[in-house]
Amino acid sequence: MEEIIVSGRSIPHVDPILDIWGLPISLYLFLGGLAAGITIFAAVVTILKKDEQYSTAAKIAPIITPIALAVGLLFLLVDLHHILYAWQLFTTIRLDSPMSWGAWTLLIITPLSIIWVAMHMKSIMPMLNMGGCCLGVLGFFIVEKNDGSQVNWEWRYPFLINFEKFVIAQKQVFAWIMLVLGLVVGVYTGILLSAFNARPLWNTAILGPLFLTSGLSTGAAAIMWLSSDHHEVKLFSKIDLFLILIELFLIVHMIMGFRAGSEIQIYAATFFLGGDFTVIFWVFFVGLGLLIPLVLESMELVGKKVPVAIVAFLILSGGLLFRIIMVDAGQVIRFLY
Amino acid sequence: MRYGMVIDTIKCVGCTDCVVACQTENNVPLGYARDWVVEAVVGTYPELHLEIRTERCNHCIDTPCVRTCPTGASHIIEGGIVKVTANECIGCGACIESCPYDARYVHPNGYVDKCTFCDHRVANGQDPACVSVCPTYCMHFGDLDDPNSEVSKLLATRNSKVLAPEAGTKPQIFYLI
Question: Is residue B105's pLDDT more than 80?
């Protein structure tokens, strides 16, 4: 038995429980994972030349990506304590620091995700209401066109028209770049946490693949929710089923790894096996966020009618809850005191 | 050169003079502390053992805080002292999350702050403020690479330990036991 009294320190956000990172970080990790998942699916569908067949995955769902990334980055910025110095991130590349990797990758993927949406604009939104009421910022980039074709608008500037031609011609290369960047963002959201050997709960190599799988699963759920094509919903339902199984496998292995780890990691596992986070983790995340969607998707596979919105909602909220739990619990478990 | 500290847990009485000296010398904001005192009672009555020790940044050799810093604000200066450049720091908290000793905090002005081993005093040949005020002379500061320094001699003749060696950071503050 060791009893410890610490005097002389009661530092805000550090004592008695570390809470430097809170809800904004969890939300950012969720949005980053979601954006990565959608990007990867869009890229894979395009690489396999199935983008006409699965148009929600390739063209419509990617509209979420730049929005999710922008909102996520906003949360990330809000969480910085020295916001006015945020530009310092882009004065250096530090290969040892996952956050540096992430900052640079997001700097590249965010504009590219906007270009991805713009590339498909003509096929997903051929008829825009040119009355001017709802165009907003878009009005700066496009003009009305009435030559009787399928599309009633054109890019305002010649270089945009040329750029669109270039991007569409290089679609395959673009898709490969997006695939790699999507994978980096998906894995990075996990590695961001697992790089801290001072936080035993985060310090596991499984966190990278686990966050990537969870991100892909939320991405598949979003595509299912948006799609109105029966075959596409069924395909992504199947993919999601598979991803949930991998996620469960990785979660069991994560807990097993803690149980077989050092003293501090065995202690970390107790938080999920009877401790403070047991109910929220197993009942709300694993139960409602993974097992029930798993059952519902299996029912759909054997032909039962299941509302896809319920499945997608459970998976998306489960993904968010998982990140909230990991960020919070990770900071509760520390080496000293 | 490798600066380090040797702290005699048998002499320390836990008066927290070192804490106050540091706060005064370094203008540490109210409610914050760069060093602190731990009283650890180990064992079951009547076999009890009390250890009192003053703790701070361990100025580790393998520094996770410098590794995870995305901007390079956390850095190591001559002698192995770990410091933060305030106007390069974005206040992201990665170094705070990475420190097994929880020795860092966010300064009310937004940047991350921590013990500097009083490098401004050390540069003038003085001891850090905490060491210089210790009434029981339980703290010793010096060059661990020099075998004739006071700290090296103490480590050669007395039993010592470091905190949380399992974190793998090679801390440079040694506790005589």
Answer: yes
Number of domains chain B contains: 1
- Alpha-carbon span A94 to B173, nearest angstrom: 28
Integer angstrom CA distances of residue B52 from A9, A26, B58, B131: 15, 38, 17, 16
**Residues 119-158 in B contacting A (C-alpha not used; CB under 8 Å):** none
Q: Tell me whether residues B111 and A89 touch, CB distance under 8 A.
A: no
pLDDT band at A130 (very low <50, low <70, confident <90, very high): low
Please answer whether residues A314 and A289 qualify as being in contact, where contact means their C-beta atoms are separated by less than 8 angstroms. yes
CATH T-level topology, domain A23-332? Formate dehydrogenase/DMSO reductase fold (1.20.1630)
What residues have CB less than 8 Å from B20, skipping those under 6 apart? Answer: none
CA end-to-end span of chain B, whole Å? 25
**Residues of chain B with C-beta less than 8 angstroms from the C-beta of A7:** 14, 16, 36-39
CATH code (residue B108) = 3.30.70.20
Q: Does B76 touch chain A (CB under 8 A)?
A: no
Asked if the Cβ–Cβ distance from A99 to B92 is below 8 Å, we say yes
Would you say the ipTM is above 0.85? yes
Cis amide linkage into residue A16, ω under 30° from 0: yes
> Would you say residue A199 has pLDDT above 70?
yes
The tens digit of pLDDT for each residue in B108-158 reads 999 999 999 999 999 999 999 999 999 999 999 999 999 999 999 999 999
Do the Cβ atoms of A334 and B102 come within 8 Å? yes
Where exactly are the structural domains of chain A?
23-332
Touching check for A96 and chain B: CB below 8 Å? yes
B78 at the A interface (CB within 8 A)? no
- Which of A15, A80, A196 is opposite residue B92, by nearest beta carbon? A80
Are residues A13 and B106, on separate chains, in Cβ contact within 8 Å? yes
Structural domain boundaries enclosing B36: 3-176
The CA distance from A256 to A204, in Å, is 11
The pair phi, psi for residue A266, each rounded to 5°, is -65, -40
